[in-house]
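stage 2 :: seqdesign
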């Protein structure tokens, strides 16, 4: 699921687009921000449906084997057991899953070779042959083979990777979130009663998190000039064009968070934006940002502009 770091990345990306755009309508970028978040859920449903389609492909494979003039001994080993896999059956009865399939118009029919190739790899694996001989049909036992398909085949498939990269612009960043959401789904689906099994939530608390990202976006844009003056004051020995745009955005977001979000500890804010700079900016950006933010924090503290709620949030 999306944690606060992932949400900060979404806001950073939206602010980057805002800075480069001639369109300065905040509402347009707020919509873009929510769309970026929703794409993670869309990606998640596409991945679940791919697992569903692989299980469905068993029937096509069985039909092909049945039409053989001389089936081999190996052909006789294979069954359609995966099609009625307990995890997959529970997924197919999940109302939220079915509604999202329709909402996002999910279908892998545009490239049936992907499903076929995944099943072809699965079919010759020792894990699949062991699954076919397994007598335990409980959801706890049967979801192991689905985990194997996702972790060892789907995530390593260059074709799947290409599809997701084409469909979702933030796939390289969001891939980690998808893995966490699928893992959470395996954990959630533990009941033999499909009605008790729930899909993974996009965030731990969407009402709170949606308010957080909107405020972070709006306040950073609103006070950008003020924040930039603070940064410029502490970077007088630097030429403006030598400071990466991403670095500027991250520092502005950090200042915004220090001032406007009383429940987020100071250390969390500083550490989070330093970590983001390691992933999204230059090699030395984290040291640079750390130094500048430390100076700005000291000044803001002296001015009484850091007002944190609760014990230990200022340190």
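stage 2 :: out
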């Amino acid at each position: 699921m999306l944690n606060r770091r992932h949400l900060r990345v979404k806001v950073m990306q939206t602010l980057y687009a805002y800075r480069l755009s001639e369109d300065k309508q905040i509402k347009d970028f707020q919509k873009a921000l929510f769309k970026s978040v929703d794409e993670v859920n869309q990606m998640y449903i596409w991945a679940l449906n791919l697992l569903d389609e692989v299980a469905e492909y068993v029937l096509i494979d069985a039909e092909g084997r049945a039409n053989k003039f001389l089936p081999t001994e190996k052909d006789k080993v294979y069954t359609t057991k995966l099609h009625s896999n307990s995890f997959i059956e529970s997924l197919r009865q999940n109302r939220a899953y079915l509604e999202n399939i329709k909402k996002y118009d999910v279908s892998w029919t545009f490239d049936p070779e992907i499903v076929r190739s995944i099943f072809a790899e699965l079919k010759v694996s020792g894990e699949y042959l062991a699954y076919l001989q397994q007598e335990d049909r409980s959801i706890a036992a049967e979801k192991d083979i689905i985990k194997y398909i996702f972790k060892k085949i789907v995530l390593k498939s260059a074709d799947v990777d290409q599809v997701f990269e084409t469909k979702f612009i933030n796939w390289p960043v969001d891939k980690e979130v998808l893995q966490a959401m699928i893992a959470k789904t395996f954990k959630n689906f533990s009941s033999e009663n499909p009605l008790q099994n729930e899909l993974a939530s996009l965030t731990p608390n969407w009402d709170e998190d949606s308010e957080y990202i909107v405020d972070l976006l709006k306040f950073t844009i609103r006070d950008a000039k003020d924040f930039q003056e603070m940064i410029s004051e502490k970077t007088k020995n630097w030429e403006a064009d030598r400071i990466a745009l991403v670095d500027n955005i991250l520092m502005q977001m950090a200042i915004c968070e220090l001032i406007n979000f009383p429940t987020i500890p100071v250390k969390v804010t500083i550490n989070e934006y330093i970590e983001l700079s390691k992933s999204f900016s230059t090699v030395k950006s984290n040291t640079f940002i750390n130094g500048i933010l430390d100076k700005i924090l000291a000044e803001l503290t002296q001015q009484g502009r850091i007002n944190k709620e609760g014990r230990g949030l200022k340190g």
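stage 3 :: structure notes
- The two ends are 28 Å apart (CA to CA).
- The first helix runs from residue 4 to 20.
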